[in-house]
Receptor-like serine/threonine-protein kinase (Cicer arietinum), 813 residues
Amino acid sequence: MNAYTTTTIILLLFMSLSLVSTGAQTLERITPGSSLSSTSSDYPSSWLSHSGLFAFGFYQHGNGFSVGIWLVGKMNKIIVVWTANRDDPPVTLTATLQFTMNGSLILIDEQGQKKLIVNANTRASSASMHDSGNFVIYDDDNNNIIWQSFDHPTDTLLGSQSLPGGGQLSSSLSQANHSTGRFKLKMQVDGNLVLYPAYTTETGWDAYWAAGISISSTVKDNYFLYLNKTGLLQIWNSSGDSNPNLINSLVDATEDQNTVNHTIFRASLDFDGAFRLYVHHDTNGTDKVIISWPGNNPCEVKGFCSFNSYCTFVDNKPLCNCLDGYKFIDSNEKTLGCKRNYLEAGQCRGEEDGLAFYKMVSMNNITWKDHPYFETTNDMLSEEDCSLKCLVDCNCWAALYDGEKGNCKKQGLPLRYVIRTDEGDNSTNVFLKVDKNSIPNWKRNYTRFFPQPPPSKTTSNKAVVHIIVVTSVFSIVLCSAIVISSHYIYKIRVLRYKRLTDTGNLGLNEEVALRRFTYNELKRATNHFKEELGKGSFGSVYKGALLKGKTKRFIAVKRLEKLVEEGEREFQAEVRSIGKTHHRNLVRLLGFCVEGSKRLLVYEYMSNGSLGKLLFGDQRRPDWNERVRIALDIARGILYLHDECDGPIIHCDLKPQNILMDEFWTAKIADFGLAKLLMPDQTRTFTVIRGTRGYMAPEWNKNIPISLKADVYSYGIVLLETLCCRRNLDVNVLEPEEILLSGWAYKCFVAREVNKLVPSEVIDENVMENMVKVALWCIQDEPLLRPTMKGVVLMLEGITDIAIPPCPDSNRA
Ligand SMILES: *[C@@H]1O[C@H](CO)[C@@H](O)[C@H](O)[C@H]1NC(C)=O
Ligand SMILES: *[C@@H]1O[C@H](CO)[C@@H](O)[C@H](O)[C@H]1NC(C)=O
Ligand SMILES: *[C@@H]1O[C@H](CO)[C@@H](O)[C@H](O)[C@H]1NC(C)=O
Ligand SMILES: *[C@@H]1O[C@H](CO)[C@@H](O)[C@H](O)[C@H]1NC(C)=O
Ligand SMILES: *[C@@H]1O[C@H](CO)[C@@H](O)[C@H](O)[C@H]1NC(C)=O
Ligand SMILES: *[C@@H]1O[C@H](CO)[C@@H](O)[C@H](O)[C@H]1NC(C)=O
Ligand SMILES: *[C@@H]1O[C@H](CO)[C@@H](O)[C@H](O)[C@H]1NC(C)=O
Ligand SMILES: *[C@@H]1O[C@H](CO)[C@@H](O)[C@H](O)[C@H]1NC(C)=O
Ligand SMILES: *[C@@H]1O[C@H](CO)[C@@H](O)[C@H](O)[C@H]1NC(C)=O
């Protein structure tokens, strides 16, 4: 805050100096009550600066109009230098802009909808469009500036404008579309000026140009970038009270002083990611590039060709092409990147699937500028070993083999920053993982029956291949055996089931079937529903006890409310399918009751309450090792629901309150399968939001189908909460940035300070970092980027390497 204010003061100083030097004595004063209109002839559509160089008002943007500031060029060619609310859609019909007494600029569209463009919130006396390109609003008393466009740059700096430390320019989307685009220029608080793709967090791996080395990473001086009127672009350090010190002069384009009144300099972060200094001569309308960073080859801009594509520079033009195995997201807009050209992404469930579904193809003349998520050192691997290492790793989609050192680098999705040139790096061979497109169907199906090999890190790849070959043969035999025997098993089961029903003794210890209770039985067992254990989204839960001989067994009886209208038969079918799930980390369903409109479920009783109580309660706190174990328990429970029982079950409402602890402190997931009772067809889009705020994946709020990945998101939040023993949203923290755990975890991860997440606790930092990485992958906004639960378990168990997660929040620049 302080840094900002000081810089503003410095800026004002410069401003007033430049005003004096240009002798701007007669400024057009715009008085409160004035209006502009986009199309109506009753009002002007813009306010011009004194000499008509700059205009503020409505300009044509796409099919409509936006409010902005532009350089009035010759022959109606305007150069937009600032846009208000640039990400709002342009107004299409007649709109007016009002300058009010209280210093606001209000946009009113034809329907009468009002939108605040500027809210200075102080009584204003006037506004002015300066010849510098700055639009300024003055207050009532001393003509102090209460708002100015120079404080809110979009993609352009003009002469006498500065960019304070911590500030940034964001490129436009395209030449014609001034919404926020794909690149940013950051004036860092450490004194460095750096270009990054917009979606990245500012680490050196993502930077594609920097003005120099950072001066200090600990001392936060008040550095700022300043472009002076005569084309000098510099980084300054302001000490607060004395004159600012020059730190770094980037370019000096100072020209003949006589032309200064008609020469306008501007530094823009263009839509293609290059930061350019332009000079504009008003006398003859020329607009010339003085310098361009990082250079004239856009392929040097990281992310110029977006995900999964590569950049080539031919005939002085950049071209984006998809890597093998990918196709354009939008073939009209090739810079937007590519996606996998088949639908099976995420199919990889383990090493054997890698071999079954994919093959590696090589690519030549490639320079890869992204950081690998895994790199072998001094292993003297062969090219085949390297390519195989990638093939059997579900996270690996490209392998870079360095023939000289025998090193192998693995790259995960999305594949980024790839350049192809004729003089490409010939010591590195690149292999891409692509779909084996002719996989017979039977093969796809039989991989489902693969017994999970107990994969261990020490198994060499050759051994893996052997295991796989042996198990394949074994599996084919096994498959036929299953087909033949399942018929008989089915018969035997039916017989057994029959026998049990016949004896009428559906004891609670039996694995096979659920017991059907009468309502009166449950009323008795719960002592007229006396002791309420909790209230969930589906209804209340009561403690009860069943007597079996002399032993008493506690149960939890859930009275379901708010069910979809459903017949008894459908309800029973659903409940029986829940009853078929048996897993150490799932709460067992013991029985049910259907009578008239009454629907009750009977579960085993969990004596140690919920994980929520354990983590956030004020009793004993689980230690680090216990929390790690609990996190894995939960993951295995969800994996079973998703992958290993009959038909996947989406839980839809995972949260610590729905995870219960038994007498041995084993975590067990409760309430699974109930979402289906409320919304029978899980494959359709859910129309009613079912989950719990804070744990819900972002797609619940968008109109897109809910998939298993929604549970993965919730798991990610639960994982973070479990690791850090605090709620995701917690206002009782020391620093504002710590309030939202997910955001803070990402910050700590980027800064490599995950131990900050669990202060005053001795933890294994490597384990913690890996688990935080997994959690960050789980909470990606984009469902496709989230791993499957299988992937999560493999990563948590340390079986697969974990790629560096991108920022989970795709909206954050
Ligand atoms: C700019 O592009 C965005 C995203 O494609 C779009 O939503 C917006 O309407 C476009 N704006 C204009 C003025 O074309
Ligand atoms: C400023 O004035 C406008 C209209 O005159 C009004 O809508 C807005 O609420 C006012 N803002 C404040 C902060 O008073
Ligand atoms: C810009 O900086 C140069 C070098 O310091 C100086 O000579 C020139 O007068 C400055 N221009 C303005 C308008 O301040
Ligand atoms: C920036 O200014 C401060 C205050 O005058 C000073 O202490 C510091 O050394 C300066 N930093 C550099 C890199 O010049
Ligand atoms: C620049 O403009 C100012 C006022 O607009 C004028 O006083 C000054 O003489 C001009 N300078 C040149 C070199 O034309
Ligand atoms: C435009 O005018 C400037 C000076 O006013 C001069 O330097 C430049 O060469 C001119 N450009 C053209 C194309 O005439
Ligand atoms: C790689 O570059 C060399 C050198 O220009 C060229 O001869 C070769 O054809 C290129 N390879 C491919 C596959 O384009
Ligand atoms: C790679 O290029 C260098 C020089 O461009 C050449 O000397 C070397 O033989 C090449 N290596 C291979 C493997 O082609
Ligand atoms: C493989 O499984 C799919 C869906 O699970 C099924 O539609 C298909 O018929 C199966 N193919 C064979 C050959 O069993």
